[in-house]
């Protein structure tokens, strides 16, 4: 035993030592020279990308965007996506530059404005890399000539030429080893699609086919007969609902089917077709016009793990009962459909344990939480917004699901006090219970029970009392929305004066968004209110705040929005306002401010919306109401916000209008 161990270790050590002796500092000279040429070419005429690729530096394997094989020192991966500066215009590749990379396996070149190839003195030179398996040329400006350039890639498995300028007849040539083909948005249509399908027959091992965002029509899909296909993406095409599912039913190896945004209408098939795909693991038919009930035969899709049905008109029972036999189901997205409550919610328990469940939908009533939810203990993401559930805060959901990361229960008609779970829950990072009828105080220990919260939204409820100081211990909190409650700041502890906004809020190191508007806060602003260096959005309107606008912002250039309107602030507009150089929204209307409007305001060139009306200010106000920048364009950035809306009242020529829009939450990636 001991002897054999000894023997096997010795050669291993010898190999390591000899490599260190023989390898030139981890880089092959021929490849290093080619990399530098490649850099010059992609920076032509005056770009500055890839600064770490330097002529005097021999260690090219340490350069950015390069992976080498550690034993041979040869380049195996080049991550050259989005490296060409857009202002440099089209980039013409010199295929010869890639010749030295004979060990290259993966080459990423997407989003570089590649428009074609430079001719080498009239000699045709294809890409020649015998080991290359993955080539991503998507999001460039290539035309059909790219197809012939791929001749020299004998190991190619996955080319991606999506989102280029290919057009019309596409006759694919390439190694028969191809397993994956991404041809999204290559403008194939009509008869050119038939040609394409015929050429696909040359690739018997094709398992993944992306044909999204083309101009396919249902009728040509009748020719689709790719029995080995495991992934098919047809999203963004106009498909014929009456035959697409039937056609696809013949592709019995399919594991992933994506029909997102295909204008499918009518009902899901109740027999043949879709339900025959018993290997199907992921089905995505989000954003179509499908209606009717979920067909019982869906229960045949026993391999299903992800089922995405959001944004259709499907009748989906709140209980999810048609899906109970899908024991592998992990993710169900059913939001924005016709969610309904069954007459009697049974006690059956589903065979699945879901990890994510989204069932939000406006205009729907459920009366109570579905019973099946009591059997789930693996939920990480749960969204039930806008369903009229009624009842109290489901602290049991948090207790049962220790992995829970986000919980959206906005606008669910829930009431009563905010109930904490029995023990602390470190994994919860998003909690939204805005727009319900919760009442009473926010529990003093909330910070200790949800120490990992990043987003806390409790607006539009009836919460009263003070903001508990334990919130200050949520060190990751980025967004705090307590607007539209009856918080007064009155507290029995000695920490804060009656009615005041607690000063420690300004010290929360991760806080970016704070909304305390429409409460009953009074008294002066705490002086060090803006001490958090991350703070960008501060909404304090419609309270009873008094005194001068005295705030200290640690990093004033970060502030994007400041709304102090509808309070009782007095004094002058402070001159330090000019330091808020990235300010977009400044709302100070309906206060008792006086004096001249400071000239410093003119320097805030990012201002999109400003309102100083209903004060005792002098100076040229009207020209300041709305800046010349078209603020519509800025607003569109914030469109996709979740639910709670930020409203601004602004005045043009004394005509008040309400801008009500989704101000910022989309910035935080909420859907
Ligand atoms: C590195 O190259 C050697 C020799 O060609 C090969 O055996 C090994 O699998 C490669 N390692 C990796 C991680 O690709
Ligand atoms: C493709 O683009 C190249 C370079 O822009 C051009 O020379 C060639 O004529 C184009 N070929 C086709 C088929 O459009
Ligand atoms: C392409 O690259 C090769 C190899 O570096 C070089 O010899 C040739 O001149 C280049 N062609 C053009 C047109 O720049
Ligand atoms: C397809 O894959 C099989 C198994 O991996 C292989 O034996 C066969 O040669 C491949 N066919 C082609 C045309 O690449
Ligand atoms: C697809 O390509 C067409 C034409 O090139 C373009 O107009 C369209 O916007 C693209 N669609 C998407 C979703 O990118
Ligand atoms: C859709 O397919 C059905 C059945 O194959 C056919 O009768 C109908 O004409 C097709 N509709 C369109 C718009 O192509
Ligand atoms: C599929 O579902 C239908 C309808 O529910 C059922 O009659 C049929 O037996 C099922 N087929 C299989 C293979 O389970
Ligand atoms: C689910 O499976 C059970 C037995 O495994 C069967 O009795 C029942 O009918 C199935 N339900 C559905 C909706 O397919
Ligand atoms: C709240 O839910 C009700 C019922 O679903 C719906 O009608 C209403 O539009 C929702 N409110 C908001 C602001 O989304
Ligand atoms: C979930 O919570 C409810 C109420 O506390 C309890 O009855 C049920 O057993 C729990 N379920 C699981 C799976 O923990
Ligand atoms: C939090 O989640 C991680 C994985 O996401 C898990 O390992 C950990 O056990 C969870 N913590 C608790 C207390 O459940
Ligand atoms: C308030 O402060 C006083 C004096 O510092 C102290 O005696 C009292 O116990 C404090 N009250 C509370 C509720 O903390």
Bound ions, cofactors and other small molecules, one mention each: 2-acetamido-2-deoxy-beta-D-glucopyranose
Q: Which second-level CATH architecture of the domain at 167-340 applies?
A: Alpha-Beta Horseshoe
Main beta-sheet strand count, sense and barrel state: 18 strands, parallel
Backbone shape: globular
Q: How much helical structure, as a percent, in the residues?
A: 10-25%
Structural class: alpha/beta
- Percent range for β-strand residues: 15-25%
Q: How would you state the average pLDDT, rounded?
A: 83
Keywords: Glycoprotein, Leucine-rich repeat, Membrane, Repeat, Signal, Transmembrane, Transmembrane helix
Membrane topology: Single-pass type I membrane protein
Signal peptide: 1-20
Domain Disease resistance R13L4/SHOC-2-like LRR: 225-459
Q: How would you describe the overall organization of this protein?
A:
Among the domains are: 25-120 and 127-147, Ribonuclease Inhibitor (Leucine-rich repeat, LRR (right-handed beta-alpha superhelix), Alpha-Beta Horseshoe); 167-340, Alpha-Beta Horseshoe (Leucine-rich repeat, LRR (right-handed beta-alpha superhelix)). It has 9 helices and 42 strands. The protein is of the alpha/beta class and 671 residues long. It has an 18-stranded parallel β-sheet, with no helix packed on it. Strand 6, helix 3 (146-149) and strand 7 (158-160) form a beta-alpha-beta unit. The relative contact order is 0.04. It is globular. One 2-acetamido-2-deoxy-beta-D-glucopyranose binds at residues 37, 94, 96-97, 118, 120.
């Amino acid at each position: 035993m001991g002897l054999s161990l000894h023997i096997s270790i010795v050669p291993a050590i010898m190999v390591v030592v000899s490599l260190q002796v023989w390898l030139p500092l981890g880089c092959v000279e021929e490849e290093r020279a080619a990399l530098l040429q490649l850099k010059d070419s992609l920076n032509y005429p005056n770009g500055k990308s890839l600064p770490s690729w330097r002529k005097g530096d021999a260690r090219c394997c340490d350069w950015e965007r390069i992976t080498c094989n550690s034993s041979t020192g040869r380049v195996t991966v080049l991550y050259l996506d989005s490296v060409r500066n857009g202002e440099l215009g089209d980039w013409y590749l010199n295929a010869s530059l890639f010749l030295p990379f004979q060990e290259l396996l993966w080459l990423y070149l997407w989003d570089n404005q590649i428009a074609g190839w430079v001719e080498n003195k009239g000699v045709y030179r294809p890409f020649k890399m015998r080991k290359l398996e993955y080539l991503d040329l998507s999001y460039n400006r290539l035309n059909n000539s790219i197809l012939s350039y791929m001749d020299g890639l004998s190991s190619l498995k996955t080319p991606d030429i999506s989102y280029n300028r290919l057009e019309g007849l596409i006759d694919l040539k390439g190694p028969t080893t191809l397993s994956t083909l991404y041809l999204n948005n290559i403008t194939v249509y009509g008869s050119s699609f038939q040609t394409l399908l015929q050429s696909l027959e040359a690739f018997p091992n094709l398992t993944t086919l992306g044909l999204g965002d083309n101009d396919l029509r249902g009728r040509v899909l009748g020719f689709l007969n790719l029995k080995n296909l495991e992934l098919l993406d047809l999203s963004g095409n106009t498909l014929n609902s009456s035959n697409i599912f039937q056609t696809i039913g013949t592709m019995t190896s399919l594991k992933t089917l994506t029909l997102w945004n295909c204008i499918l209408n009518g009902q899901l098939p109740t027999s043949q077709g879709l339900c025959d795909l018993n290997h199907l693991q992921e089905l995505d038919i989000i954003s179509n016009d499908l209606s009717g009930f979920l067909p019982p035969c869906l229960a045949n899709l026993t391999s299903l793990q992800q089922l995405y049905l959001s944004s259709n008109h499907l009748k989906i029972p709140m209980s999810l009962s048609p899906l109970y036999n899908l024991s592998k189901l992990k993710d169900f997205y059913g939001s924005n459909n016709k969610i309904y409550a069954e007459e009697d919610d049974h006690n059956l328990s589903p065979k699945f344990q879901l990890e994510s469940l989204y069932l939000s939908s406006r205009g729907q009533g459920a009366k109570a939480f579905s019973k099946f939810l009591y059997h789930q203990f693996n939920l990480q993401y749960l969204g039930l917004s806008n369903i009229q559930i009624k009842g109290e805060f489901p602290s049991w959901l948090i207790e049962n699901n220790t992995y829970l990361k986000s919980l959206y229960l906005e606008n669910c008609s829930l009431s009563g006090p905010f109930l904490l779970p029995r023990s602390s829950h470190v994994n919860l990072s998003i909690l939204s219970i805005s727009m319900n009828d919760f009442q009473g105080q926010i529990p003093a220990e909330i910070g200790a029970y949800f120490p990992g919260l990043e987003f806390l939204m409790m607006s539009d409820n009836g919460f009263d009392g003070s903001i508990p100081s334990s919130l200050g211990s949520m060190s990751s909190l980025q967004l705090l929305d307590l607007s539209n409650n009856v918080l007064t700041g009155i507290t029995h502890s000695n920490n804060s004066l009656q009615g005041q906004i607690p000063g420690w809020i300004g010290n929360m190191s991760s806080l970016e968004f704070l909304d305390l508007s429409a409460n009953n806060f009074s008294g002066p602003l705490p002086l060090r209110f803006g001490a958090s260096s991350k703070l960008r959005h501060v909404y304090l309107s419609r309270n009873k705040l008094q005194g001068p606008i005295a705030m200290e912002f640690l990093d004033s250039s970060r502030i994007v929005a400041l709304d102090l309107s509808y309070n009782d602030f007095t004094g002058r507009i402070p001159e330090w306002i000019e330091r808020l150089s990235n300010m977009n929204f400044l709302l100070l209307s309906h206060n008792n401010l006086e004096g001249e409007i400071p000239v410093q305001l003119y320097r805030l060139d990012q201002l999109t919306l400003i309102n100083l009306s209903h004060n005792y200010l002098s100076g040229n106000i009207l020209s300041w109401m709305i800046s010349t920048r078209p603020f519509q364009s800025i607003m569109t950035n914030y469109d996709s916000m979740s639910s709670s809306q930020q409203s601004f009242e602004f005045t043009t020529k004394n005509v008040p209008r309400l801008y009500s829009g989704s101000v910022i939450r989309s910035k935080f990636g909420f859907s």
